[in-house]
Amino acid sequence: MAHLPIPATDTPCGFMPFDAPMSISPYVTDSSVAAIYRGDLVIAEADGALAVATTNSTAIVGAAAQYGVVSTANNNFLVYDNVLQKFWAQDDADTAAMAATSVGANCLIVATTGSTSLLTSAHEIDSNSAATTAANPIKIVALHPCEGFSYATSAAAGQQRKWVCVINNHFNAPYQQVGI
Does the CA dihedral 32-135-137-61 come out positive or negative? Predict the structure, then answer.
């Protein structure tokens, strides 16, 4: 299966499906929600409405498939929500570069507000958090093919890479287990 195209830029785009989306389901947002950008990871709040995930969020529902206007209720907000869906995302490479040893690690997210002009997410993988910590919401599966499968040591702080990942603590998982 062909991989979906990715932008040739170091500007983060959030969490986008790797390969074809496995499912896109409608959810509810309420009028108190902050803007949700396409590619933002989202969680379900206590009232069942979606909200943007934060760095330490657990039980992530999926990634937003569309932009959601701030303070606007939506009964059909689309989310890539399949438990088995693979995503690609960029690491932040702020102080530590991820390497071959990052595959299999669990990471936190950097939940930065998205682009108001492009309406896309700025969520990234927190490169400093790659560890075996089961509660971290993202699991690294592989280096993205666009990186040439090169784990060269030349990747250093400030040189972001794109990774294939899955949601580690998925809201729709049958047993709500922490860590895979």
Answer: negative
Do residues 93 and 154 lie in contact, with contact meaning Cβ atoms separated by under 8 Å?
no
- Average pLDDT over the chain, rounded to an integer: 84
Low-confidence stretches of the chain (pLDDT < 70) are 1-12, 149-158, 175-180
φ and ψ at residue 135, rounded to 5 degrees? -80, -15
User: What are residue 27's phi and psi, to 5 degrees?
Assistant: -135, 175
Give, as one character, the DSSP assignment of residue 38.
B
pTM of the model: 0.86
Give the pair of three-digit tokens for residue 139. Answer: 């699991």
CA 49 centroid distance within chain: 19
DSSP, residue by residue, 76-129: EEEEE--TT--EEEEB--SSS---GGGTT-EE-EE-----TTT-B---EE-GGG
pLDDT at 154: 47
Sign of CA dihedral 61, 127, 89, 104: negative
- Picking from 143, 119, 11, 108, the residue whose alpha carbon sits closest to that of residue 65 is 119
Q: How far apart are CA 43 and CA 120, in angstroms?
A: 17
